[in-house]
Amino acid sequence: MHGSATDIETPAVVMVGFDAMDPGLARELAERGEMPNLKRLFDEAANAVVRNPVGFVVGGVWPSFITATPPSVHGRHCYAQLRPGSYDVVDVSPLGIEGKPWWQPLMEAGGRVCNVDIPFTIPRPDLGGVQIVDWGTHDRCLDFVTVPEAEAHRILDRFGAHVTPGMCDAVIARGRWAELRDQLLTGPATRTDIVLDQLARADFDLVQVVHAESHCVGHQFWKVHDPDYVDHDPQLRAHLGDPLVDVYRALDTELGRLLEATAGALVFVLLSHGMGPHHDGDHLVPEILRRLDQGASEQSGTEHLSRVVQRAKAAVRPLVPGRLLDRYYVRRRNSETVKAQAAQNRARSRFFHHVNNTMYSGIRLNLAGREPQGRVMTHEVDDTIAMLTEQFEALVEHGTGRHVVNRVIRVSDIYEGPHLVDLPDLLVDWNRDEPIGDVSSPSVGRVLSHYVGQRSGDHRLDGRIFVTGPGADSVGLGDEIDCLEVGPMIASRVLERLGVDDGDREPA
């Protein structure tokens, strides 16, 4: 089904988002003629780099966009977080995000807003408008729900549910590559149909829609797309073609449909953040921290054992179907016994691996007065952080000497807010140019462990935004913009159209 662009009321402002569509790859495909609609935006529209929250891309980008605040304020930095006052890592729901969405003042001023599939949106019946939540977002956290409530039944009756389950990993874990590709090619057109249907039924001041398929395809199909990826699968490429390019092309088609349907509107097009090969050393961090905690005097025996175990894993991995290994690691990671043991290990350590996205590893001090069994005294914090920074920045690829860490960031140097206490104390920014699996330093010794996860594509920090349509030249975009400023920038344009002075309003 493809909704018609006729007989609709053009909204004043439109935001079309593409979740984790890599700006560099999108530009390359646009120049090749694969994405003609985006090519026109690159050539003709005002556009700028979007600077996202350093260190907290996976769980923090969309909540930061929505609330116009950093993770240290809104409280969500990852899909799982350390439960305050404990050593337990628990899944976190979007319902715990603090702060009001930047579009709330628009709605309170009488603006008519329609939101479709903005990731991590919390349904707000009190705000009214049309809110379509988690119809087809990536790694859906909530059940599909709408405001008004009856709209969900109408959408399901007319358009059906999104064909991809909540976790695209689940499809690949069963080896259904072609099935996931076909699902990701189907979803964008249906989502556009839903938007056009809303435009045909009501008059809106602001319409926002985010396509998630770029996120899923980047994670799962990077090894099919990239011939230089360490686990590139040429047989799968021959069978599937390049699903990543196919999905980007399909998303560009939907961008064209939306631009045509909303001609006359001021349109913002947001590529939220990037995607690239899954090169990082996050899987090495627990062993590195264990060695640093125990001290160099205990390294000789444990280093030999670790090397033997890792070599055995590396030898076995090519002999076992990848999906079976992935299932094993997922089951092991999620078992209650393993979780309990991990919590005990954190309690016994002076510092530990703090769950975070893999492009920036998190390290947390087991700080006295903050953690239940804190082992690092307040007067030891600066020296401990200096030691960890020095040790991680000294890590090199064994055999080549290539430094594998760009920098270690002290989180309190760049963030502040009520949830700073919930964030890691340090972030390890990995050099993601090449795979990281065999590292060494004089103090740590040699650590050998290769990434065995399912996702061959991983996040990159920055996004890009385009502005086109009447009034685009007056937006004053510049060369780059902070993620936290994007929402208020859009809001100011809507309030302007509504004839409301937002000069004295507090930031959303």
Strand content: 15-25%
Q: Low-confidence parts, pLDDT < 50 over ≥5 residues?
A: 296-307, 325-330, 504-508
Tally of contiguous helical segments: 17
Report how far apart the termini are: 37 Å
Strand order across the largest sheet:
7-6-5-8-1-9-19-2-20
Determine the structural class based on helices, strands and strand pairing.
alpha/beta
**Largest sheet, described in full?**
9 strands, mixed
Instruction: Specify the helix fraction band.
Output: 25-40%
Mean pLDDT over all positions: 90
Radius of gyration: 24 Å
The best one-word shape is globular
Number of strands: 20
Describe this structure in words.
With 508 residues, this protein is an alpha/beta fold. The chain has helices at 23-31, 36-44, 57-67, 71-74, 104-108, 150-159, 168-173, 177-201, 213-225, 234-240, 243-261, 285-294, 299-316, 322-334, 336-348, 381-393, 483-498, and strands at 13-18, 46-51, 80-82, 89-91, 113-116, 130-133, 145-147, 206-211, 266-271, 274-277, 351-354, 360-365, 396-397, 405-410, 426-430, 438-441, 445-448, 457-460, 463-468, 480-482. It is built from 17 helices and 20 strands. The strands form five sheets. The protein has a nine-stranded mixed sheet with strand order 7-6-5-8-1-9-19-2-20, with helices on both faces. Strands 11-12-15-14 form a four-stranded antiparallel sheet, covered by helices on one side. Residues 296-307, 325-330 and 504-508 have low confidence and may be disordered.
